[in-house]
């Protein structure tokens, strides 16, 4: 035959002879990138699976825990921003896959406010702006449920108060990037402006006004090798959660100019050991049910934010003496 035929035979013959006396070759695993080998972070499906594994466990028998810990600041015109107290978020969630491939996160969330010096949970607080001693109200969101799907999420309705039209359906793709040391990072923003459940005529001391202006900023960071490891049904991650929101109703600021700013570090983890010991002890004593996610049968929508829960559960404060 031709030289090409002989070369073809020679290479294949050599390869066959070499493999005959050896075990099957071990294929090197593909190096993880944003596009694989398990999830493609440039697609809606890849983002759905990644965010679901951060917030719940794809193993439906397991609980996923989350925390955020940081400082709440007061922001007023004409003066420096002032740290007021600490914030500790405690959450417990379970995943529940839906027939269309999306995931539901059944989730309970508690927010505690703490003394900046001692870290202890506050039950009362002297408002530095007014000098008034006020009762601190823990946030108990039971449930706070969410859906993880391939498309961008519609804004929360907060009990029908937020009537913002949902955006056109488009794939959910966060701006993931490699930031060095094998870490991937992305940021997500939620910007809302909707009628307040705390209207000034009924809640003159608690209401910051007729509308809520709220922004939340989530930044996620996780090892790329974990993101691309199909065996990891849960991703242990860290990041930040920041929030601009009206004055806490229990501060009794009324319609005074200004707002609050939360700046926290958040984490997701797979056991109760991830919480600060004194925060876990406080939760076990005062809100033990919030350390368990809701049962599957209890899926309910819509969710309420802390402001709507306050309006539902509290009574207007008497006029200031």
- Oligomer, anyone? single chain
Strand element count: 12
Please trace the helix and strand order, writing H or E for each element: HHEEEEEEEEEEHEEHH
The secondary-structure class comes to alpha+beta
* Unreliable stretches: 2-22
Q: How much strand?
A: 25-35%
Number of helices: 5
Main sheet record = 10 strands, antiparallel
State Rg: 25 Å
Distance between the termini: 107 Å
Helix content: 10-25%
What's the mean pLDDT score?
90
What is the 3D shape?
Answer: globular
Topology of this protein?
Blueprint: H1 3-20, H2 44-55, E1 64-75, E2 82-97, E3 103-114, E4 124-126, E5 133-135, E6 139-141, E7 146-148, E8 177-178, E9 183-195, E10 211-223, H3 224-227, E11 237-245, E12 259-269, H4 277-286, H5 306-313
Summary of the model, kept short:
The protein is an alpha+beta fold and 321 residues long. Helices cover 16% and strands 31% of the residues. The strands form two sheets. Strands 1, 2, 3, 6, 7, 8, 9, 10, 11 and 12 form a ten-stranded antiparallel sheet that branches.
Task: Give a written overview of the molecule.
The chain has 321 residues and is an alpha+beta fold. Helices cover 16% and strands 31% of the residues. Strands 1, 2, 3, 6, 7, 8, 9, 10, 11 and 12 form a 10-stranded antiparallel sheet that branches. The longest helix is centred in the first third of the chain and has 18 residues. The radius of gyration is 25 Å and the shape is globular. The N and C termini lie far apart (107 Å).
């Amino acid at each position: 035959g031709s030289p090409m035929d002989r070369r073809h035979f020679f290479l294949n013959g050599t390869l066959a002879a070499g493999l005959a006396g050896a075990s099957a070759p071990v294929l090197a695993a593909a190096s993880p990138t944003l596009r694989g080998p398990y999830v493609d972070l440039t697609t809606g499906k890849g983002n759905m699976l990644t965010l679901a594994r951060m917030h719940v466990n794809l193993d439906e028998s397991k609980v996923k825990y989350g925390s955020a810990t940081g400082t709440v600041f007061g922001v007023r015109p004409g003066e420096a921003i002032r740290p007021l107290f600490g914030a500790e978020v405690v959450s417990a969630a379970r995943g529940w896959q839906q027939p269309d491939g999306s995931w539901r996160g059944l989730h309970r969330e508690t927010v505690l406010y703490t003394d900046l010096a001692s870290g202890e949970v506050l039950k009362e607080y002297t408002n530095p702006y007014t000098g008034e001693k006020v009762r601190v109200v823990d946030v108990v969101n039971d449930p706070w449920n969410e859906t993880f799907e391939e498309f961008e999420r519609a804004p929360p309705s907060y009990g029908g108060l937020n009537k913002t039209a949902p955006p056109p359906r488009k794939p959910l793709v966060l701006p993931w990037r490699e930031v060095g040391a094998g870490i991937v990072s992305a940021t997500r923003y939620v910007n809302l402006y909707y009628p307040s459940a705390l209207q000034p005529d009924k809640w003159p001391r608690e209401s910051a006004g007729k509308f809520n202006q709220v922004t939340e900023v989530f930044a996620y960071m996780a090892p790329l090798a974990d993101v691309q490891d199909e065996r990891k049904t849960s991703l242990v991650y860290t990041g930040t959660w920041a929030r601009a929101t009206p004055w806490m109703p229990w501060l009794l600021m009324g319609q005074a100019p200004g707002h609050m700013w939360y700046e926290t570090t958040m984490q997701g983890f797979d056991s109760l050991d991830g919480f600060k010991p004194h925060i876990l002890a406080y939760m076990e004593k005062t809100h033990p049910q919030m350390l368990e996610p809701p049962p599957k049968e209890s899926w309910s929508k819509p969710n309420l934010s802390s402001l709507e829960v306050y309006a539902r559960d509290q009574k207007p404060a008497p006029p200031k003496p």
